[in-house]
Amino acid sequence: MKLPPKPRALPMPLWLQGVLELGQSAVISALLVAVPVAAVWLTGGFADRAPESAARLAGQAWLVMHGVPLVLQFPAGVAGADAASGLLHVLPLGLILVPLLLAWRAGRRLARASYTDQLWQAFLGAMVAYAAIGAAVAYASTTPDASAPLAAGALIPPVSAAIGLITGAYREAGAWSRLVGVDFAAWVGRTSQHSRWAGSYAWSILRSGFLAVMVAACLSAVLLAVAIGLNWAGIAAIYERIDGGIAGATMVTLFQLGLLPNLAVWTMAWSTGAGFALGTGSSLTPLASTVGPLPALPILGALPAGTLDYGYAALAIPVLAGLLAGWWFFRDGENHFDEWLVLRSSHRWLTSTASTLALAVLIGIAAGLGGVVVALISRASLGLGRFTDLGPNPLAVGLWLALEVAVGAVLGHAVGPLLEREPRRR
């Protein structure tokens, strides 16, 4: 007797798989904020808040983690007679890594499940689902004191999810042709030789500028860590004054860890000489610091105060970043502008000087634009009084960083031949 064949299961549609993948990411990232909020509520840290109120607070924290602004309503006498509302906006760069990495994982899984030219189906389903979740959270977490616009809740969270999905899918596929069906390498190969040289030169300039920003940010993070270590006693004293218990101290610490990348960017702005502000009328630069009353946030105990005798030494950070960028550009071997000048002039001193100055200016511009972007996304506003201006001025950071990186790029490209000289063979 022959048994009937087992019915084949229907494959899951790609759009539905995208919905499930990013739905999991939304739930896991929500737990990151829901668990600390629940712990504080269970220990009585929110006074007489009802469970529904604590849940709405967790929803608002999830939105803020994704960069969604909140509209705050202040009672009379808190923000002044003519300022009854304000906009709280902060993008904690440390916390947003959680949904971004979860989306990166989802992107890799979706790329494995998709054929060429089909990833857009999963991507579309995932984006629609994440937008719907963001809008639902914005609607459900609305309170008389704070609310998020539904449009912002629907449009802003998918931005980090899209970045994670695309980078994760590309990491899994290894080439854009396997994702979108377009072979960019073949397209570039059909262009003229001059176009390929110009493209290689421009791409090398952009990567050098990116390297300069990353090096400056990393060195600034080291400087921030040193400042925290040297001022740990003051930071611990602020913790003691808060006296929020284990749950409260844990929540404050998690919030500060989420803000550490923002503070590293502010330190980079400080090292360029542009400085940053902690409220309207305040200014922190390598030469002097002028601040007013600050919120009781322990990490602020590491701020420099008064006049710094050797603060100008921090200006070496962006110059060193430019030096490494110029050296890297020399190692990359894509200085086709110098080759073009050599074909048109026999005066090597002139062509070498012109090409070096050109690459320094272009690397400086690329680094300056990168500095503008990171300074802009690191800014914050508490929506109350003088604390609507927190962070560096993006334009000032871009100008100072471009100038100092350009100086360093000249030095790095000049010493490149000395550093890359092969050892003599005996």
UniProtKB/TrEMBL annotation:
- Annotated membrane-spanning segments are 22-42, 54-74, 86-107, 119-140, 210-233, 245-269, 310-330, 350-377, 397-419
* Segment forming the signal sequence: none
Q: What protein name does the entry list?
A: DUF6350 family protein
> Which terms are listed as keywords in the entry?
Membrane, Transmembrane, Transmembrane helix
Q: Which InterPro entries does the UniProt entry name for this protein?
A: DUF6350
Q: Which domain of life is it from?
A: Bacteria
Pfam families noted in UniProt: DUF6350
